[in-house]
Specification:
elongated, Rossmann fold, Arc Repressor Mutant, subunit A, 11 strands, binds calcium ion, 9 helices, three-stranded antiparallel sheet
């Protein structure tokens, strides 16, 4: 086995390295540990997904893996609602692969062969104090707050819109991924936990109700064959 069962290194920042090539995994792990990070290597997608139950500050992710691939790992990170940054490190350098990785939630993408200095610089940038808060603003430019107690969306002009529990869960998921396409399947698994047939139209019905309740500055568009995208109008 190419991976150690234990986390190596004494640093407080914990990095999961998902890489099936032992040479690359060892090289990346040593470079990160030399910088003071604690590392663990998962040699395939299934191990990586199992290890998501532990807290990680960053995941370095290869895409081509035995078993479930890097995209399955990105989906698992999203399904669990984790905000762990994922830096994809892949020999696949085509633009459409990069776009697909970013759409699936990757925070950064470095093509192989890579320079270790560039990898370390990107890791530092992701783990810098404030980087995490900046990445997913709790409050987008337009003031939108969620009053969980009353299950209301509060807009900065003072309007309050009451939502059902499911509507609120779908809205929060779309808001967290604002400007990105979120597939129907991902919403179904995040909010309904596969309690419904994937062919069911519960997601569409719920999004339809959200659209009727929420208007400017919030728009939820359907992206044919792909899913939904929430966009926020810029403040005038
Ligand atoms: Ca690989």
């Amino acid at each position: 086995m190419a991976w150690g069962g234990a986390i190596l290194g004494t640093g407080s920042m914990r990095i999961l390295i998902v890489e099936d090539e032992a040479l690359i995994a060892g090289f990346v792990a040593r470079a990160l540990r030399a910088e003071g990070y604690a590392t663990q290597v998962a040699a395939d997608g299934d191990q990586a997904i199992d290890l998501l139950e532990h807290p990680w500050d960053l995941i370095v992710l290869d895409l081509l893996l035995p078993g479930r691939d890097g995209f399955a790992v990105l989906d698992a990170v999203a399904e669990r609602g984790l905000d762990t940054p994922v830096l994809v490190l892949s020999a696949r350098s085509r633009v459409d692969t990069k776009v697909a990785a970013f759409d699936a939630g990757a925070s950064d993408y470095l093509a192989k062969p890579f320079s270790v200095d560039e990898l370390l610089a990107r890791v530092r940038a992701r783990l810098a104090p404030g980087a995490r808060a900046d990445r997913r603003p709790a409050r987008p430019q337009i003031g939108i707050e969620i009053d969980h107690g009353r299950r209301q969306v509060v807009l900065d002009d003072g309007r309050r819109v009451a939502l059902s529990q499911r509507e609120l869960a779908v809205f929060e998921y779309l808001l967290r991924s604002a400007e990105q396409i979120v597939s129907r399947e991902r919403l179904l698994s995040a909010v309904w936990q596969y309690g419904f047939d994937p062919r069911s139209n519960v997601v569409d019905v719920c999004v339809g109700r959200l659209r009727r309740k929420l208007d400017w500055p919030i728009a939820i568009e359907s992206v044919r064959g792909a899913g939904y995208r929430l966009t926020l109008a810029q403040a005038g």
